[in-house]
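Support case: user asked for a sample of complex input and structure output to validate their parser. Sending the pair below.
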Amino acid sequence: MEGGNYQSPRPSRGSPRTKQAPAVRVLETLAPSPESLEVISALAAAIEEAAPIQAKHRAGLRGDIRALWEELTSERESRSVDYLGTPPALSAYLRYFLPWNVFRLSSIFSNADFCLPDKAIVVDIGSGPLTLPIALYASRPELRDVPLTFYCLDRVERVLEAGQAVFESLCMRTEGRLPPWRIVLRKDGFGSPLPERAHLVAAANVFNEFFWKDKNPLGERALDTGRTLLSYLRENGSLFVMEPGDPRSGAFMTALRAAVASEGALPLGPCPHAMSCPMPGIYRHLLPPEETRVIKGDPNAAPSRYVLPPVVMPKKRDKMPWCHFGVDTDKAPAWLLALSVEAGLPKERAVFSYLWAARGAMARPFAGMPDPLHSSEKERRARVGKGILVRVISEPFALPDSSSGQYACSSLGYTLLKRPRDASPFEPGDLLEVTASPLLRNDEKSGAIILPT
Ligand SMILES: C[S@@+](CC[C@H](N)C(=O)[O-])C[C@H]1O[C@@H](n2cnc3c(N)ncnc32)[C@H](O)[C@@H]1O
């Protein structure tokens, strides 16, 4: 990547967790750091200062939150473009959705192994009230001293301006100063040009707003979306997308993952491998298989350069699993939990799907792990004896033989982690390095590869 000093990633990987068996190391977890939780706690006061609620709207806040939640979670294809432009909706977004989205993003950013060079350029698509810059500020304190430029792009100017006021108030409360960040607000739509390309292109909770309006096949639309996203990115840069935790968004994420991979940006997270996705929901393929064959035969004609290699998939069923995570909310600020209850939206887990991908120099393999792309399934199975990366997806559940299971993802594909019932379970989202016997078998019920831990 061009110029500048890299901020070293947090030493989040490699610390053994003593309660686990020696063959398992927890390398990464999905949870907001204590520092980020402190900043999220201060959001209530920052929002009150930057965008005080009018007395006539205070009594209706709970109802406004509920109404906006219904609007945002409905699968309606048409939502008013300016749905955040009215004072009650904006106030509801700032007080409920902004803090929960900062919580979700912080649980990813706090532990993710990513870095930004000095003077890095970040593009945030559908920035809303600057949720993503606020989450980076909260969860990566080392970036508070680094000059960065953020292009915050949104169709609605008022929400961007409100977000900037909240951000500044929050920074003053946290450190008594603003970070050396240049924040450029752009009232514009996805796809509109920007003056420079970014080291990091990000988008949170935005594609579910318009992706499904188009009736073309899912794979084709994912290719269009992926190409537009990558048009904002430098040759050596990374891409981050988070969407709400619903099955449709989960399938979108798998389709987008395949699309950006076909354009040279390989997945880094949550995926512990760059093979095809074993939890694709309703997603099947980027292009119809017959077209993919033609493309493979003639790379020059290829809209698709690279098709991800297959892995073990779940047993055939009506609804394939879709990749998503739920983070415990017990450490969220008390005011946010209370407001959620008041609005009739109590939250035990903050759920989402996400994707990191990178191309060029940023697309580094996981430290110490051989490139899974260029190995056969037999070689990948043999690798298990030396340690493979596994991302835990589900909560624990009881297995018939009185052991405990958790679904997970690995370079082998759909994976079932099996452990003694009395062993402490992993958290959904944990990234593990598992060293087990390479003599593996498949679970009859789910089709998953059984990995003893
Ligand atoms: C649910 S909000 C998400 C805001 C913020 N990223 C977050 O995570 O809290 C979606 C935002 O995307 C914006 N948006 C929707 N479609 C857009 C488009 N085509 N181009 C730019 N912004 C868009 C909306 O105005 C809104 O502010």
